[in-house]
Structure formats: C-alpha cells, structure tokens
Write a structure and sequence with these properties.
Elements (H helix, E strand, L loop, with lengths): L1 H34 L5 H4 L3 H19 L3 E4 L4 E4 L2 H7 L3 E3 L2 E16 L4 E4 L5 E6 L6 E2 L4 E6 L1 H29 L6 H27 L14 H9 L5 H4 L11 E5 L4 E6 L6 E2 L6 E4 L3 E8 L12 E6 L6 E12 L6 E8 L20 E19 L4 E3 L2 E7 L4 E12 L3 E6 L6 E3 L4 H14 L3
Length: about 450
C-alpha cells in the first residue's frame, strides 16, 4: 500500500511540473506578442556600461561611412574617388588603349612523324632465301642501292624463259627472212605461216621480258641483239645488280637466281627484319626506308575547335628542347574524328633542316626526330589593328561585358563593350572606346565591387 501511494504522489508531482512549464511559455509568448519581441534585459535593467559601448560603435560606423574613399553614381555610371590619394590607395592602375595585333589560336597537342609519302616498306617479290644483307639499321642509302640479295628459283626460271623466247624469236626471224628471199619458189601460204609464227614468238619474248620487269629487273630484248649465247647468259647472270656490286661476285660460283632488294629513293634504313639465310615470303616486309629531309606535324584538334581549322592556316609547333618554334601551314584535315579520343587529326609538312651544316650525309644531324611530342598553335584569325587589353580589364555583369575608363583625375566611367578575339592573356574589345583612353586594369575589381554595392544599397535588382 505504501509503495503504491508514493508512486501516485510522484506522478502528480511530474504533472504539476509540466503544467508549470507550459504556463511559463504561454506567459513569455503573450509578453512577446505585445512588445513586438523587442524586449531585452537592457530595457528591463539599464546598464550604463553597455549603453556607452553601443553608442561608441554607432559613432564609429557613422564616421566610417562619412569617410568612404569612393562612391558610385548609378545614374551616370561614374565612380568618384575623393582624391588622387584615394585612387592610389585603392590599388587601381590604368593602361593606355592602343591598337595592336591579336590572333585567335587553336591549341592542339601533336607529334613529329615521318612523311608517309616518303616512306617505303620493302619485301621480296618472290619466295626465296636471304643470300646476303648489304644494309643495316640506321644506314644512309641512295636510290638504287642494294639492301639485300634474295636467292629465288623463280628468278632463274624466268631468266631461262627469257633466253629461250629470245632464241626462238631470232630463229623465226631468220627463217622468215630466208623465205622472203626465195618467195618465187615458196608458196605464199607457207610464208604467211612463218610470219604468224614469228609474231607468236615475239609475244612470248615480250611476256618473258615483262615477267622480269615485274620483279624489278629492268631488261630490253634489243640489248641482246647480235650477242652470242654465251654473251647473253653472262649479261643476264647478274641482271638488276649494280656494276660495282657485280664485279665483287664470281660468276663461276655465284648463282644466277639472285634478286636484289633496292632502295626506291634516298633515305635512311629505319626498320630491318631480315637475317642472312632466312626464308622470306612476299608478304613479309624486310626493310623500312624513310626520307627524313621532310617530316609531318600531326596535330589532334579538340571537338570544340573542329569548325575553326582550315587548309592553309599558319601553324607554329613547339618541341621541348628546340630553341625556336617550327613554322608551317595546314596541308590536310581528316574527314573523321578519332573513335577513342574524338579529336580531329590535321597535318602540316615541314622541312627537316640539318642542325649542323657540316654534316655530310642525309643522316646528318637533322633537327627533327620522329615520334617527338609537342604543342601546336593554329592561327585561325588575325586582326592587325584592334583595341586589345589584358583580360583582367574586362568584367562580366548582368549578361554584358564592361570596362572602366578613367574620365577624370578621380573619376572612372563604366562602358559596355563587346569582346572579339580572346587569348589566354588578352581580349579584343569593341565598343564606345577610343585610342588613348585610360582603362582600369590591375585592381579594377574594386570598381566593379563599388558598382555592385551601390546597386544593393539602392535596392536595384
């Protein structure tokens, strides 16, 4: 019984406390409503110390407002400083507006590559075995130089076919000549048959000649006229080999099945995948030759600049380690974007000069190397006579560009302008400006801030 009594007493006390708290909150709310929620302890209990501090703060604020260095007249758009010293303290400096050249540039990463028009991948035209290798990686070559000799049975067979066709043609020509001399005693039908036989032999000879030419072995049947069989065999033995190389070979012990791999133009061996005794097929490249006197600059243009580039535009290309920029112009633009990077490939051609003029060969000390990266600048537009200011002079406000022009010793006026060409450092401005105007540059953000504060004070949107 006693325990139950104490529990009920405890619950009554808790309810009484809650009712008292609610009553106090209602009282505070009622008082706040009738005082506009402006009552404070300072009003209830005057404190001279706090009153003095508040008055001093108000006085300081008023003094500061009265001593502002500059103010903005919203109607005229003029920002007025109280003195020249105020202008100097603000940190605002000006530049004189002059006309100068400005160019719109497209920046693109790129690399130096070989000129694909002056590059060749060489292989054997028939199956065979590498008999000898004459040139190696990095060697300079001239047009017609032998890079390697391939021993191929097909070459020997085609040479034999040519000699056979040549002999048949000569024989049929002699028979026809003999018949025509005694035509009075020989039937016309037999003479016509001899002529037809001679024509067929000429065709076979031309086919045999063309088969050798297709292998790169230049030959003409007229060169074999009036030669004996032995002389014909000797002439065709080293067909296609330069005379200086043929002189180093013993005709008695050297096969006549040799096919030379020949350099098509002056250049350097930039690739070699062949060894002596190796079996080769026509599908396998053996040598790679490049003429490095002319190179390509290949640039990757970002998609936002696709429409700006055009053939003929000047290109400047900077390679790390070179003292000067390379100058060229766009010669080709791809018709498609790269599937992975979505960049557009453009190309410029450039002469690869010799870094050291005393270098005697094509290898020399050429200035450029393939597969070297760099940065290119494509000049898409140039204005030689434009008003140009540093970028920090131009500000953006409510959908328009503005600058601040000094109109007096302590006055600056805001001017709405249009922006033309813009680079990383400078901007072309178009609008109500004239040559010789003093435009606020460094520190001009102070003027814009004052203009915005004035709008806020006036309640302007």
């Amino acid at each position: 019984m006693m325990k139950q009594f104490w529990m009920q007493t405890k619950r009554l006390i808790q309810r009484a406390g809650s009712i008292l708290t609610l009553a106090m909150l209602l009282l505070v709310g009622y008082a706040g409503h009738h005082t506009g929620w402006s009552f404070s302890l300072a009003h209830a209990v005057p404190d001279h110390k706090h009153s003095d501090a508040a008055g001093k703060a108000a006085a300081e604020t008023a003094a500061h407002g009265a001593g502002k260095d500059h103010e903005h007249d919203e109607n005229s758009g003029v920002i007025h400083f109280r003195s020249a010293e105020s202008v100097e303290r603000s940190g605002v400096s000006t530049i004189r507006l002059d006309r100068s050249q400005i160019s719109d540039m497209v920046i693109a990463n790129g690399e130096i590559t070989y000129d694909q028009k002056l590059m060749a991948r060489l292989s054997s035209r028939v199956p065979g075995t590498v008999w000898r290798v004459e040139k190696f990686w990095g060697d300079s070559v001239k047009a017609g130089d032998v890079l390697a000799l391939i021993e191929a049975t097909d070459v020997g067979k085609l040479k034999a076919d040519f000699l056979t066709a040549l002999a048949e043609s000569e024989t049929h020509a002699a028979n026809l000549a003999s018949m025509e001399k005694g035509s009075a005693s020989i039937p016309e039908r037999q003479i016509r048959l001899a002529r037809l036989t001679l024509r067929a032999s000429h065709i076979r000879l031309l086919n045999a000649e063309q088969a050798l030419v297709n292998l790169g072995l230049k030959i003409r049947s007229e060169e074999f006229a009036d030669l004996s069989d032995i002389e014909e065999a000797q002439k065709i033995h080293f067909l296609g080999l330069p005379p200086e190389l043929a002189k180093t070979l013993d005709p008695e012990s050297t096969t006549s099945n040799l096919l030379p791999i020949v350099a098509p133009f002056d250049g350097i061996v930039i690739g070699r995948d062949v060894g002596q005794g190796e079996v080769v097929e026509p599908s396998k490249p053996l040598f790679q030759i490049a003429d490095v006197r002319r190179m390509w600059i290949t640039l990757q243009v970002q998609k936002e600049d696709y429409q700006k580039v055009a053939i003929g535009q000047p290109v400047s290309f900077h390679v790390d380690g070179l003292p000067t920029e390379l100058k060229s112009q766009i010669s080709w633009i791809s018709t498609e974007a790269n599937e992975e990077t979505r960049t557009l490939q453009v190309r410029a051609e450039i002469e690869n000069t010799i870094a050291h003029p005393t270098a005697p060969t094509i290898a020399g000390r050429r200035l450029l190397r393939a597969n070297v990266f760099g940065t290119g600048r494509i000049e898409v537009q140039t204005k030689p006579d434009a008003f140009v200011v540093p970028n920090e002079c131009v500000h953006y406000d409510e959908g328009r560009h503005i600058i601040f022009v000094k109109t007096g010793e302590t006055d600056f006026s805001s001017r709405v302008v249009e922006c033309g060409i813009r680079t990383a450092t400078h901007t072309e401005i178009i609008g109500a400006v004239a040559e010789g105007d003093e435009v606020a540059c460094h520190g001009s953000h102070v003027l814009k801030s004052q203009m915005l504060l004035s709008k806020l004070d006036s309640g302007a949107p």
